[in-house]
Specification:
By secondary structure, the chain is mainly α. It has 3 helices and no strands. It has a domain of 60 residues. α1 packs across α2.
């Protein structure tokens, strides 16, 4: 009976930790997506500037515009979808060990 009580206590503790981690991961994914969108938008502005500079004869800009154009063509080309593989969930002992190592840092 004592072992069951320990297991249930541990289960509740792990559940709380998982809740915090899931929220953190969700916010981290959102931040990652936002940063990606912002950096892509900034790169497109630079690309348009290089194109305009090349059209007006600014030396060297035609190479920049051409190279960036090739890069964006590769980005927009159809790609195979990558299969997402998930890691195996940790067993209770592995999870406890990992959490203990983290808390000791």
């Amino acid at each position: 009976m004592a072992g069951l009580k320990k297991d249930l206590t541990l289960l509740k503790q792990v559940q709380r930790v998982l809740g915090v981690l899931e929220t953190f991961c969700e916010k981290l994914r959102d931040t990652y997506m936002e940063l990606g969108a912002e950096s892509y938008a900034a790169a497109r502005i630079f690309y348009r500037s290089a194109q305009n500079a090349a059209k007006t004869g600014v030396e060297g800009c035609e190479y920049i515009a051409r190279d960036l154009g090739e890069y964006y063509k590769k980005l927009s080309a159809p790609r195979k979808k990558k299969e997402i593989t998930r890691q195996k969930p940790l067993k209770n002992k592995e999870l406890i060990s990992a959490l203990n190592r983290r808390s000791q840092r």
